[in-house]
Design brief:
Helix content is 45%, strand content 15%. It contains five helices and seven strands; from the N terminus they run αββαααβββαββ.
Amino acid sequence: MKKFFVVMVLFALCAPANAIYKCKNPDGSISFSDAPCGARDEGVDMEKEQEYQEAVERRKREALEMRAMELRERNATLVEVRKKKDVFARQYHRVLDENAWPHYTQEAYPELVEEYFDRMIEVEDFRYKAVPLVLNSQRCDQVTRSGLDREWSKIDNIYITVECRNGNQFRMSEQGIKEGIVPSPIFVNGENGDDE
C-alpha cells in the first residue's frame, strides 16, 4: 500500500502541469478554464472577424484619403487667399504695415489652425473686410496688426482685432464685419477705451 501511495505521488508530480485561465464572462461573472478565454468562446467565426477588421481598416484608409483631399483643397484655397492678400497689400501699402498680416500656417500657428481649421478661409476673409472698415473710419492712421482675437473668438463667432500705429485698437465681431460696423476702439492711443 505504501508503494502504491509513493507511486501515485510520483506519478502526480511527473504529470504535465496544465495552465488554468481566469476569465471574466460578458455578464461579469468569473470562470476558470484550461483553455485561453477567447479560444473557448462559442460562436466566434475567425473568418468573419478578419473580414470585419479588414473593413474597419479600409474605412480608416478612406477617411484618411478624404482628409488628405480636403487638406489639398484647403491649401489650394489658401494659396488663392494669399494671392488676394498680396493684391490687398499693394492696394493698401501706404496704410498697412508690412507685419500687419501674419500668415496663419500650420507650422507657424498649429493650435490656431487646428482649432479653427474649418473656418480658416473665413477668418482670412474677415480680416480683408475688417481692415478697410477700420481705415475708412478715420480713427486709424496705419494698421500695424490684424488677426483673429483668440480671447474673444469662438468657432461659431469670429472676432478680428485690428491694431493701429496711433494706438487705437478695434475688436470686430463676425456679424459687425458682415454689416460693415466699426465699433469704438477698445484701446484709444494705447489706453483702455470703450468695449463692445
